[in-house]
Design the sequence.
């Protein structure tokens, strides 16, 4: 079956630090990959996505590249802000259905 | 355009009772999916409805059920509540399902005592 593994958290960074959040996956077929973000008290928001190998998704300074050879989709940002503090989820979807398989999520705290 | 709305936002129930949660998708969206979020299990897929038909189902017991109406609004029902059903229940809507972007509601926080 499908599965997503995220690095253990939580992660605490100082403002303007570099961020990397690791995500690896196991899937049947050719998955589409996503990063979702959840701010306190809110639902999930799509941050970025990639639908095929070597695609790079990007949004709000965040980037992730679909690496088929390493089955990874690591999230990076060059300079984090306090407003980036949230929970980040890596997810995948395969086939023609909407079902998302999520990783456990990681809490990011950015201090001023 | 209004986002996905879920009602109620918070709910407290007693073991053995049943509960119904509601989700109104974005106007024009025909697919609604439900997820359960708990600290231990994370986000788990419950089911997806498209055009009033259940199209996909996760690994949850039969106590969890859902339905979708002709206006695409969806409800999920949990019968004979257990303490372990305490969770944040999220619904997400997409235009047609598949790999279309999913838009999530704020969730319903269910506490079972």
Sequence:
């Amino acid at each position: 079956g499908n599965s997503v593994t995220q690095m253990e958290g939580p992660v605490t960074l100082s403002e303007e630090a570099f961020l990397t959040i690791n995500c690896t996956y196991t899937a049947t077929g050719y998955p589409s990959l996503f990063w979702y973000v959840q701010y306190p008290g809110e639902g999930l928001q799509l941050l970025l996505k990639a639908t095929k190998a070597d695609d790079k998704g990007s949004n709000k300074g965040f980037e992730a590249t679909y690496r088929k050879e390493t089955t990874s989709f690591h999230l990076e940002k060059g300079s984090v802000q306090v407003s980036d503090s949230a929970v980040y989820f890596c997810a995948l979807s395969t086939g023609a259905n909407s079902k998302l398989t999520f990783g456990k999520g990681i809490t990011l705290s950015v201090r001023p | 355009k209004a986002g996905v709305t879920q009602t109620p936002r918070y709910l407290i129930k007693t073991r053995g009772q049943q509960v119904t949660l509601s989700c109104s998708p974005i106007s024009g969206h025909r697919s609604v999916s439900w997820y359960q979020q708990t600290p231990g299990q994370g986000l788990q897929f419950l089911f997806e409805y498209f055009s009033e038909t259940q199209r996909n189902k996760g690994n949850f017991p039969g106590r969890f059920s859902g339905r979708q109406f002709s206006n695409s609004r969806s409800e999920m029902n949990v019968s004979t509540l257990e303490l372990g059903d305490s969770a944040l229940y999220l619904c997400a809507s997409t235009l047609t399902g598949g790999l279309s972007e999913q838009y999530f509601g704020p969730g319903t926080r269910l506490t079972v005592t």
